[in-house]
Amino acid sequence: MKALVYKGPGHKSWEEVPDPVILHSTDVIVQMVATTICGTDLHILKGDVPEVEIGRILGHEGIGVITEVGSGVTRLHVGDRVILACVSSCGRCPNCRQGLYSHCLDPEGMPGIGWIFGYMIDGTQAEYVRVPFAENSVYPVPDGVSDSEGILLSDILPTGFEIGVQYGHVAPGDVVAVIGSGPVGLAAVMTAGLYGPSRIIAIDLDDARLARAHDFGATDTVNSADPDWKDRVMALTDGLGVDVAIEAVGIPQTFTMATQIVRPGGHVANIGVHGKPAELALNELWIKNIDIAMGLVNTNTLGMLLKLVAQHKLPAEKFVTHEFSFDRILEAYDVFGNAAEHKALKVLIH
Questions:
Q1: Residue 188 pLDDT more than 80?
Q2: Which of 48, 70, 104, 163 has the fewest CB atoms within 10 Å, counting from its CB?
Q3: Is 72 helix (H, G, I), strand (E, B) or coil?
């Protein structure tokens, strides 16, 4: 089969590799129908995730059809069309029993980390993939859910919702600011609306993405390139600061921005994947009684979000702006890696 292989920082290749095989009784083999690229893949290619070995197949999102099942798999069958969760989890360990799938104690590669696709084991940017702990890590696709909708449920919709909205404790009437209007930031914008905030403020440097944020539920937009961006945000909160500030970029400057606009007693939820340390101004923040949360998505809300997408309560198809065939995956990386130039959000590779 062919797959997208990591060749070291700055290098990747679409090349022939061996087909995956069943290794454990709880595995299934899935023929990939569609996959996509995540900002985390770009971090890996930059060298920000040194644990990823040269030769690893990248990717952790996808939809496919099961072609083979392990002897211990009883609830899945050959021919099932499924969404692959980006987090693999046994469902039995103490962490999984609390819904903390992201810290499954029985994954392959690194105990205590449930994200293994494209990290510790070969990932989904391939024609076939082996899925461990399949019965707790894939979700049958309901009739009527398209690839463009389903692909968003592997990672970014649950990430925006769980790590941004839930960890940020968004409540009815809140003023919510989301810093970064890329795909995961827009996922937070869209799913924040489920809790009835009074305002959702999208903040970004790119006017095109800010214009698009309105389509995903933002009530207000602020371009952070403006010298008075903070004053504009504060004016939308009667000078008090936002109830919830969600960071969805992953650089020190945007994390600092989130801490600067949150009101006393508010919440900062960090979604972004940071490649270097960010300064925490405890000398200023200690007195504000704020909560700061961060984490790796658990995907324990994937089933619930899938129901909302299937009933068209969440217009997930809006995220896909470009489509490519598998043999054009390198072109897809170029488009996604230069998203502002191409006005790209998510790319669908199928």
A1: yes
A2: 48
A3: coil
